[in-house]
Amino acid sequence: MKHFLLIVLLTLYGVSLFSESNLKALCENLDDCEKKADLTEIHRKKITLLTFGITEYGKGASIQSLCPLLLKRIKSIILEANGDTGYKGEIILKVNHKAEYKQSQLLKAEEDIQFLDANQSSISKDNYSELLKLKTLLDQSR
Asked: What is the pTM of this model?
């Protein structure tokens, strides 16, 4: 019985070693990440998709191409920190976060705002007006 168990365990271990271990990317490029984020209402998922797009594909991108993603991420971070999950259906799910979590999320949004502020010469008027609205929302969230 012990030998049988050992053989089964070694077989399972061997199969796991030879199985494909490549992870599928969340999205293919910046535009794909933005489109997928736009298709969901769930803020945590939006934040994940936008962050992945910015970190993976935003390295050589211009501020103009990153700006819409950053604005959407800022908005989702602030709304999520304030307890809005984005889940819709028969009930609207709201949550209360610990103060430390909320502050850490708002700090992330503030960092993105500061980045866009520092590069405001590269931002369109429409995007800048959206940035001002998000600054107000951030101030109201504190």
From this structure: 0.80
Q: What residue has token string 């794909």?
A: 32
Spans of all domains in the chain: 27-141
Q: What is the DSSP string of 73-98?
A: HHHHHHHHHTTB----SSS--B----
Give the whole-angstrom CA distance, residue 40 versus residue 87: 9
Whether 139 and 106 have beta carbons less than 8 Å apart is answered as no
CA 67 to CA 126: how far, in whole Å?
Answer: 11
Alpha helices (H) along the chain: 2-18, 30-39, 43-57, 63-81, 99-118, 125-141
Q: pLDDT tens for residues 26-73? A: 899 999 999 999 999 999 999 999 999 999 999 989 999 999 999 999
What is the predicted pLDDT for the residue at 22? 46
Q: Look up tokens 């001002």; give the residue.
A: 132
d(CA 32, CA 27): 6
